[in-house]
Amino acid sequence: MFYQVYPLSFKDSDGDGYGDLPGVTSKLDYLSNVLGVDALWVSPFYSSPMTDWGYDISDHRDVDPLFGTLVDARTLIDEAHQRGLRVIVDYVMNHTSNLHPWFVESRSSRDNPKRDWYVWRDGRDGGPPNNWVSVFSGPAWSEDEETGQWYRHTYLPTQPDLNWRNPEVVEAMMDVGRFWLELGVDGFRVDAAHQMMKDPKERDNPPAPPDYPRPYKDMGEYDRFIHLYDFGHPDVHEIHRSFRKMVDTYGDDPLTIGEIHIFDLPEWASYYGESFDQLHMPFNFQLMATEWSVPALRATIESVLWNVPVGGWTNWTLGNHDELRLASRVPPGHERLAALLLLSLRGTPFLYYGDELGMRQTFVPSEQSRDPWGGNVEWLSRDGARTPMQWEPGPRAGFTSPDGEPWLPIGPDHETLNVQTELDDPSSLLNLYRRLLALRRESMALRVGSFLSHPASSETVLAYRRESDTETVTVVLNFAFEGQTLSVGSGKVVFSTLDPERADPVKNGLELAPLEGVVVAHR
Ligand code: NOJ
To answer: Which residues line ligand 1 (CB under 6 A)?
Structure first.
């Protein structure tokens, strides 16, 4: 299982209120020995003016002083490796910061050699070149008064899009990848991996009719258009082929997983490449876009697995730094079912920091808001899912020093939902995750086995079988507020989300308590 560390919020080692790399290193024992994860995805820590909290990079080859130094990055990677943990880092392909020296040069004059490294166009009728809007709202183009042209930005005006149609950009960015692979990272989470290529004719997007289905969540102004021309142009696949070719020169180990916000499954699967020569995996966000009900989840799981190409491998996630906290998206009591679901599907699970504690979305008042997205629009702001990791009870939750001022408020649930308190409570969510991770480590069927829906499934029960050469298990999740008795064949309960001691044999029927999830081993 991968664990996503959002380093700004994980552990502050120097008392400035911002998490940092030495902070992450100091918690590696928690991650590897206490929780028991296999790998980390560490969100950006590169030099950055922090207008999008590190997703606006001004130097790809250095660490921002907020997070430490390059030596700290190397130490984190080495120390993780010593514990058998893999580390992947963000590779922000689509854009840089406007303060990156490449953009500073590009902007300086129309005939600068780096002009074409970004996307510069003349305006149309005194306005932007076309009607494309930024994911974060407002036009996707900003005018530069000095040179009288507009540059494109899929995100903030401080995040100008690189021009991936320019071979010099491709080479420079491949070098960035090489730099981090040389430093020892085990791969990349590729940011905005479907955004880099857009319609070469730059046609206007058609307006979306009011009832046009939203594939995912309410995105504000971005939803006013059908994104026919500014999203996922097929030329993007060539970029992924080049990137993969470069990564593969470092052996079979490094992993590439791309942030692909595409919900049409065949198109999503095309990012594996016809001969598996693109991303190792497109990120699978489907569960987060699915209504939390058994029929809907079942349909999603079956269709994702059906669409993963033969020989391909997928992943599952229920949270990240861009989404509402899991514990606030599912009904009370369902966090435990969510944990079993995430860790028992066929594919690599990705867990967002703090979700193992059940940390909830924190209300962040607008005067304390840090996210450039949303401003006062609470449902757009991502701050509430980025509050500091809760290590212990007390005013700073063990995140920063006693007089440190955390960059975002500490969640009000931290007195009960924190590592220290939960470790002492055998029935806590944290201990549930620990038991589950231990079970998954021991079970070939759960790790790599096939997946088949089980006939015990119903409107309120999600049941599936996982089977390897040597082992067969059935996972049964009771979403009902009543107990149920089901027929799943004989075996033995090896895991329950409610009762850590449960280990009863199953003969004529499996008894499930309300909202209980179990794993039954058949052999
Ligand atoms: C996706 C990242 O996950 C998000 O946090 C960021 O704001 C955008 N890409 C822009 O890099």
So the answer is: 52, 55, 92, 155, 191-192, 259, 321-322
